Amino acid sequence: MGITVDHLPFACTDLEATAAEFERLGLEPEYGGVHDNGCTHMSVLGFEDGSYVELIAERDRGDHGFWPEHIRADAGPAAWCVRVPDIVAECHQYLDTGVTVSGPLYGSREREDGRLVEWDRAEFGTGDRRLLFPFAIEDRTPLSYRVSPSPSVAGGPLTGIGVIVLLGEDPETVVEALRERYRWPEPVTSVVEGFGTVASVPGVPVAAVGPETERLAARLEQFPPGPCACLLATDDLDAAREAHPLGETHNWPDGRVAFFESEQLGRRLGVVERAP
């Protein structure tokens, strides 16, 4: 069963500094405004398929549920979101598989132009599974209020979010937890430099890894299982390399991958070209 990735929250301590680094890489986001919690604000790197990377940081160190531990640790990928046509139906489908549901919950933010953006969201799972499952969103206002293609990437070789890389105790357990809900096919696996064994689900924007490297083991000690990297999609990795500073190309289980040349972002943001 397919899914539509809506966005990936990329947690940072300093929104302006992180946005500047994205801009240096040819990925200039637009400021998106303040959330209705009054504590967090965000910038949007939007793609033509309607997906986006959300840079999110705190304005005030208040009480909010938007991944404060990840934000305060400058952790990058903090969660992932799927877009659904019926948030209530999505909640029922999770409940039918025995997964705990929180929601639907109202959300909003005010853009700098004063326009109010509104949606409903739901969160799934508890404990160590909470960030492995995506949260879901259904728009109340038009999707174009939340995201539009950013000029820095519009018409270019990057077409959207290609793969969310999920980190758990082992790749097989991560994929199996999600297959119970989405009835995905068996993943294909291979060893990828810097990640160890990667299980990539054919035709699905999800891959899974375990703590096989020192970097990933340290992350899993600090944070619960969940996203550890976001790979932007391209149909032509060579063209993406001409447009953006990318490092060495590596094999991916069902394609090729390269990561942005950025000490600040590390291997948390890359580009993937998957086999058709």
Describe this structure in words.
With 276 residues, this protein is an alpha+beta fold. It folds into 2 domains: 142 residues, Roll (2,3-Dihydroxybiphenyl 1,2-Dioxygenase, domain 1); 117 residues, 2,3-Dihydroxybiphenyl 1,2-Dioxygenase, domain 1 (Roll), CATH 3.10.180.10. The protein is built from 7 helices and 17 strands. An 8-stranded mixed β-barrel has the order 1-4-3-2-7-8-9-6. An 8-stranded mixed sheet has the order 11-12-13-10-14-17-16-15. Strand 11 and strand 12 form a beta hairpin. The two termini are 17 Å apart. The mean pLDDT is 94.
The helix fraction, in percent, is 10-25%
Write down the Rg. Answer: 17 Å
Mean pLDDT: 94
Let me know the largest β-sheet.
Answer: 8 strands, mixed, barrel
User: Secondary-structure element order, as H and E?
Assistant: EHEEEHEEHEEEHEHEEEHEHEEE
- Unreliable residue runs: none
CATH class of the largest domain: Alpha Beta
The domain count comes to 2
Task: Please tell me the CATH architecture of the largest domain by its name.
Answer: Roll
What is the strand tally? 17
CATH topology of the largest domain: 2,3-Dihydroxybiphenyl 1,2-Dioxygenase, domain 1
- Strand arrangement within the widest β-sheet reads 1-4-3-2-7-8-9-6
Question: Can you count the helices?
Answer: 7
Strand content: 35-45%
User: Superfamily at the CATH H level of the largest domain?
Assistant: 2,3-Dihydroxybiphenyl 1,2-Dioxygenase, domain 1
